[in-house]
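Write out this protein's structure.
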Amino acid sequence: MTKNSGYGIVLEIFGGEDDAVNNRVYSSNNSITNNNVTLNCYGEPHESCGIGYKIEGKNNTIIYSNFTTISGNNIIGNQNNGLLVNTEGEDTAVVRVNNITISGNFINENNHSYYDPDEDEWHGGNGIQFASDENDNSDVELKYNNIVGNIVKNNSENGIFIAAMAGDGNSHNTISANNVTENKLGIIIWGSNYNDILGNNASFNDNVGIALVLNHCNIISKNNVTNNTNGIYLYYSNYNNVTWNTLWGNEVCITDDNCVGNIYEDNGDCVVKYIRAPAAVGDGDDDDDDDKEAEAIPGYDLFIFISTIFILLGVIYVILIKKRLNS
């Protein structure tokens, strides 16, 4: 499948169009395997152009889609994302998509982000994008999925990007034994909890090897994270276990950016860099002592130094006045 104006391959499951109510859709045991998917979507702004698996429910629709397999494909040089899994729920839809396996794919140079003038934004360039979205009344579940044994390299944005854009239904996924190299960012998990990131090689990425953003209760273990700008980066992500990883050649080894309760153990000689936002006046944050809060305030040391100088000058002035009065 090559040089198509849209997707190379797309499996789309929709329910609830035309104001349908109480509509049920079942689609399971699908497979997309052993295809060459290359050079699709050039010149056409599109959310994904290699392989797409899209599930969208509206109104009162209920969609069940389980046990889909996407494996053994060569996904190379497509205009936007290489492989997209996207689940969405609108209105009062219920969407259940579980037990997807993405394995053994070669995903390379997907590729060239495009500019969307209508949204004034750049899009795309992820090797694998695995995302869920819902509104306040819908219920979307994307759980118990496996992304295993893929080679994901030279993509212009993220190698593997897992995201819960709204809600907490995207969780309990396993990302293991993937070779994620030479992307802008390696493995990025955004807003998705209770995932296992195990035994991956995330190396030679321009920015970060593995990152958690607004995620909780994940396990990052036995990964090889080398020669990135940042090795492992956690941002406002709490109660995660980061253990038994091999980290070397990164400019910064592990960063804990405003997180709580993370465990860092047996990561070699890696030193964790802690970043804490300055506490607001009157805040009673017991997690940071006064010294740490002081260090976080730009110019704090200079302020103390100047204040001390003025106090000393005042003392000297008083002494001189007393001497004149006594003479």
